[in-house]
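Q: A reviewer asked whether we had any structural model of the full assembly, not just the individual parts. We don't, so I'm hoping you can provide one. Inputs are below.
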Amino acid sequence: MKKITILDIAKELGITFSTVARALNDHPAISAKTKIAVRETAERLNYRQNKIASSLRSGKSNVIGVLVPSLQVTFFSLVVYGIEQVMNANGYNILLYQSNEKLEQEKNGIETFLQSRVDGIIASISTETTEIAHYQEIITRKTPLLFFDRIPTQLNVPSVTIDDYKGGFIATEHLIKQGYKRILHITDEQDISIFKERLRGYMDALLHYNLKIDENLIIRGNFSLAFGKQVIQEAKASGLNFDAVFALEDFTAMGVMQQLLEYKVNIPEEVGVIGFANESFGSLVTPNLSTIDQQALTMGREVAKLFLKQIKDDSLEDHPEQIVLDPILIVRNSSNKKG
Amino acid sequence: MKKITILDIAKELGITFSTVARALNDHPAISAKTKIAVRETAERLNYRQNKIASSLRSGKSNVIGVLVPSLQVTFFSLVVYGIEQVMNANGYNILLYQSNEKLEQEKNGIETFLQSRVDGIIASISTETTEIAHYQEIITRKTPLLFFDRIPTQLNVPSVTIDDYKGGFIATEHLIKQGYKRILHITDEQDISIFKERLRGYMDALLHYNLKIDENLIIRGNFSLAFGKQVIQEAKASGLNFDAVFALEDFTAMGVMQQLLEYKVNIPEEVGVIGFANESFGSLVTPNLSTIDQQALTMGREVAKLFLKQIKDDSLEDHPEQIVLDPILIVRNSSNKKG
DNA sequence: TTGAAAGCGCTAACAC
DNA sequence: GTGTTAGCGCTTTCAA
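A: Here is a predicted structure for the entire assembly that you could use as a starting point for your response.
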């Protein structure tokens, strides 16, 4: 089957291919009659624009690169869901790349995006990412760049995040208001800004309510379910005194709950538990897990909208807008001592 | 900043741009010395290949379109995760499109893929999709097309699915072997092939183990958690006699469990429960939910591998390979009467 | 082993 | 309102 180009349509109608091109692009200078004839012929010949040729010539691909750590994480797949919906409705397509939390793959992704001449890049960095030269490169090439959730602190670019500090604060505040006094916090041992912020919120909430910060109650590790269990086991072994746990993630909180239940500790009467992320299982487990919602879907839509705003008005580039969404406290049974 | 092309590299070195192109593509006829010089210069000038130009000329984009109903559904995001991983490792990139279960958007997605001259399309159809003209068009244009999970029955193309019939059979068989005799099955009232298959598996398992099919035990509705609850409420109201439930989805099964627990019915002693899909919450709820795993990740990887196989050997196109994955029975507490 | 030259299908400046 | 023309940056055939 021969490939149909605008030249074929032009020959059919005895006009030139540039007229055809203009007609198809709804150029104002073309007569209605010609437009109709061209469209009818295009339809009949089963013509389909070649976006590659169009992109090469015009310098616009209408594709934006979206880089995420992993679609296995519900949060990221929801953000991508939101981004794709909005961008798609605005004539953009999504080139997807996963870093799998590897710096090397993240660099490859950026490289691919650059070679593919995407019209913009929306990214959330991997946990491994410390150097940011590959992002600097994007800026140098004047390709619009936005971050969401996990952002490199050294860069002054538009972003959408949630206020992790506030999330940490309201989670801790909630526990305090429920009457808990010795609140254990599990955080990540790596220097990841979102986790550091949650920790900072935790500490400020304690101070704000005149509780003192006890370094023994700050446990550094990772956010796996297994680590949550381990923390409780070790706390028991060492005789650590605590009456609530604020875990950096729901999975960690889940491990905490499982181990507490195994030790026949009553939740929330003896120990209160709150997680972070509002994973879908939280409302289904027993007891239900209190948590902080991160507004994944909103974040996806907002970052897409911010992108569209950015390219419409690039005078904004000197003052990159940094949207910070409010985390939402979700109180369920695991921390609801007062009922 | 001026854009660097192979012409710039050529000028730097006093050779022609076609030699540069060959050097960069590791053409065998180019001397090692030239290759090294070219690469060094490319690096120094910060050259980056323009994939758009390359695609236009070569007719290959190294992009494949992936069309899914919605990334909000964990199953699909896991499949995409698997596809992206494998394709990425093989030099392909993913153009992502969501149909949101709408036929119109599905058509738009296919149209975009065709215009973008993707090297292949991997799709899972929307629940609305009945006509398939838009897929016929892909085949006509000789663009490789593969389906996974939800496939149009009228088309003879490569696909990867799981055996839903077998899933229904082994779920039911498991309940029977645990000693349950009056097994209630919740299915969808719409004619969706995967659900019909699960129902067929359920019925055949009953027959195979000499239990008779009782139409009163087959409840038609939807797979929401709320419907699961409703079924148990109505069963109680009508005095329906049953000792196990096989629900078409985990969320439905969850509703069933919640309502049973509310009625103080012991799970699994009095009533056994099994779901379908292996949602992440299944292992975290109390009691743990038995289920059928759909191998989402494997499905993604397999469909990607099948795609690669297909394009390597297009003689296969006359006998499209249709891979059917085995569902996996996951026994947890909710159905484990015998321990 | 390298160079010359054509052209992929389109957009857009300029001409009439 | 439509035609002419020149590329976008690369791959690839043919020639030397």
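A: Points you may want to mention in the reply: The mean pLDDT of chain A is 94. The longest strand of chain A covers residues 63-68.
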